[in-house]
Amino acid sequence: MSIINFKGVKKVQSDIINIQLIQLVFAYIFVLILLFIVKQKDIGHKGEILLASVRMTIQLVAVGFILEYVFANQNPYYSLLILLIMEGFAIYNIYGRVNVEISKELKMIIAGSMFLGTSISIFFFVLAVVGLDPWFRADYFIPLSGMLIGNSMTGISLGVNHLIDGFRDNKGLIENYLMLGAEPETAAKEISNRAFYNAVLPTINSMMGMGIVFLPGMMTGQILAGASPIIAIKYQIAIMMGILGSVTLTVFFMVERGAKTFFNSRKQLNI
Amino acid sequence: MFKIENVKFKDILNIKKVELDKNMITAILGSSGGGKTTFLKLLNNMITADQGKITYKGQDIESYDPVALRREVVMLPQDPEIFRGSIKDNFKITEEIADKVISKNLNYEELLHQVSLTQNLANDAQKLSGGEKQRLALARVMLLEPEVLLLDEPSSSLDKITEEKIIKRVVDYVSKNDRTLIMVTHSLDIAEKFADRIINIEAGKIVK
């Protein structure tokens, strides 16, 4: 069955092995093994493991039904609403991942950078790279957006933590720059550059090992769903570039604006 | 040059009135934690007073662009940070960050000589000893030829003989070039020998 064009290439769907409910139950044996080990070794955290397993199941079942409905009732508002929900959760998650109290101003910058950086990347990706028509086609728009948002969330969390640590650990150096007559941007340049690099590095590293050390999730999923490996790698290469672009943009916006929040209007360090 | 009136900063500093004149060498003495560094930081806008008024050249310090002021009134902290790279890189970075075009009669070797640093310009600045780093940081400040030098214990890591030698050179440089020097020091000897005026700050207040 021919189902979609990816720049002129047709994908042929082969038979997918559908996991029956009873078979799915077997998968939970892995959780039981973990619980058994934890109990035997008196490691603790049994409740946490159970909660994670139950939460994961409920969340995925709910998402499965929602997506089933959205895919069957294609509508731009549904796609945009889900995009907004994903953005909101990602931003909330970033605030939780930062180890220290962050200012209101920095929180706003994080949210703005996430929204702007991922939106630019998502729309460029679905329109120019995938050529999605209509652009809101939920079975493509939502998973692709999810991958870009998820990776940008990790990148920006790393960037914020490195930026805050950088300013705290190098207070003396930054003050020394200011005392010699440096503009705040110049004084913060080394810290900002390091935060940016450390935030983008995991994406670059994962690109290095891709295909040799591991098969990436999207490619694995497509192959399991019956796509030819050639089509799967094309998507994988494209999505990796999209992820790189999205992480780069969101972290760049955050670092550029975020570094300024560490100075007041008198160009003094305010930490 | 500086006029400080009814200035308060947190519980650290509370100054009723003091004036610091142009082309003078002022030494600030006092116990540690008494507010000496805070006093210097207020003069080049690294911090802003909670109350009171500071004027520089007759104008409210708040009316100056903070960076432009810091390029005229340069401060050397007690534990200066040395930039990564060679000694020459430290001078180059200083020129770049302060956006300064260095006058022709200044050269790096001469500056090193001024602070008695017998090192090659290509040497790694991070490998210098504590005292050498402090002298390099002082040379960086002199490179900028500021109108006012604010030095916070510039010789704390030096032995007595070197300390006196360096301070004498700085004082000569300041006098010869019509600059103003405000220097925090722990040494009453140094203050009495080189300063035109001594100010004592204890528990945030000027006591003498």
| Fourth-tier CATH superfamily name of chain B | P-loop containing nucleotide triphosphate hydrolases
Oligomer: heterodimer
Please give the CATH class of chain B.
Alpha Beta
Low-confidence sequence ranges of chain A: 1-13
CATH third-tier fold name of chain B:
Rossmann fold
In percent terms, what proportion of residues of chain A is strand? under 5%
Report the span from N to C terminus of chain A: 61 Å
Q: Estimate the global geometry of chain A from the Cα principal axes.
A: globular
Strand percentage of chain B, roughly?
15-25%
Largest sheet of chain A: 2 strands, antiparallel
Number of domains of chain B: 1
Q: How is the biggest beta sheet of chain B arranged?
A: 6 strands, mixed
Helix content of chain B: 25-40%
Polypeptide structure, described:
The complex is a heterodimer of chains A (271) and B (208). With 271 residues, chain A is mostly helical. Chain A has ten helices and two strands, in the order ββαααααααααα. Chain A has two domains: 14-73; 74-262, no CATH class. Chain A is 73% helix and 3% strand. In chain A, a hairpin with a 2-residue loop joins strand 1 and strand 2. The relative contact order of chain A is 0.12. Chain B has seven helices and ten strands. In chain B, strand 4 and strand 5 form a beta hairpin. In chain B, helix 3 runs parallel beside helix 5 (130-143) and helix 4 (108-114) packs across helix 5 (130-143). Chain B is globular, with a radius of gyration of 17 Å. The mean pLDDT of chain B is 91. Chains A and B meet through helix 7 of A and helix 2, strand 6, helix 3 and helix 5 of B.
